[in-house]
Design goal:
CATH superfamily of the largest domain: GntR ligand-binding domain-like
Shape: elongated
CATH class of the largest domain: Mainly Alpha
Number of helices: 10
Strand order of the largest sheet: 1-3-2
CATH topology of the largest domain: Four Helix Bundle (Hemerythrin (Met), subunit A)
Number of strands: 3
Length: 246
């Protein structure tokens, strides 16, 4: 049975909307690794022409979220533990630089960022958890005063959102993560640059180790057979999320 998709109204930004809809579905696991994607099927389900779907799929391929399928179409890429580890190494360096610069300015992060994250961690909305985490880190990038940090980090968050959603489904780290975030924010506000950089780098290192270990145990980390019915029939939410737009 074909999964229902909310139809997207035609607009000048339709390619971006289709791209975000598919990227969000891949990111939150509604399109799991190994799902086969074709222009015709997606265009029909989104009630758009094939052209914006084709362009959106090209963007997803460039981002490493899909790759060519045997025969025809594309497959959602599997979660690669080694690649995720590489991404976290880069993120740790960027986050440490951002935290050091933000502490140099004694920046005070919005307390609502921490409250939002703690509230999400106590709930069941995986997208809310991921978006709250990303919002916290982007607030530090903004507080650094160097816009190149956010621009450099943004491409990596595409992969980070995806693996975080997969792992946070059953992770005991949901709440402790926000205690670490609170300690980082406190160090930044006190102007303790070295401490802030150390805390956020250690935070990224622990997250990398935890996520890599969890990925090894997750069926979602392995691409299923293209004939696997659950991978093809699972519902896909097509509502784009502005909070995760590039």
């Amino acid at each position: 049975m074909t999964s229902a998709l909310a139809q997207l109204a035609s607009s000048p930004g339709l390619v971006d909307r289709v791209h975000r809809a598919l990227r969000d579905a891949i990111g939150d696991g509604t399109l799991p690794p190994g799902s086969r994607l074709t222009q015709e099927d997606l265009a029909e389900r989104l009630a758009v022409s094939r052209q914006p779907v084709l362009q959106a799929l090209r963007l997803l391929k460039h981002e490493g979220l899909v790759h060519d399928a045997p025969g025809r179409g594309l497959l959602v890429a599997p979660l690669d533990a080694d690649r995720i580890a590489d991404v976290y190494e880069v993120r740790a360096a960027l986050d440490a630089l951002a935290a050091r610069l933000a502490a140099g300015r004694r920046a005070v992060l919005d307390p609502q960022l921490l409250e939002r994250g703690r509230r999400a961690a106590r709930g069941r909305d995986l997208r809310a958890m991921v978006e709250a985490d990303e919002a916290f880190h982007h607030a530090i990038y903004a507080a650094s005063g160097n816009p190149l940090i956010a621009r450099s980090a943004q491409p990596h968050w595409v992969q980070l959102r995806r693996v975080m959603a997969a792992v946070l489904q059953s992770s005991p780290q949901r709440v402790p993560i926000w205690e670490e975030h609170a300690a980082i924010a406190d160090a930044i506000a006190r102007g303790a640059a070295a401490e802030a950089a150390r805390r956020i780098a250690d935070h990224a290192r622990r997250a990398r180790e935890h996520l890599r270990a969890r990925l090894a145990d997750l069926p979602a980390a392995r691409a299923p057979s293209p004939a696997d019915p659950p991978a093809r029939a699972r519902a896909l939410s097509s509502s784009p999320s502005p909070a995760t737009a590039p």
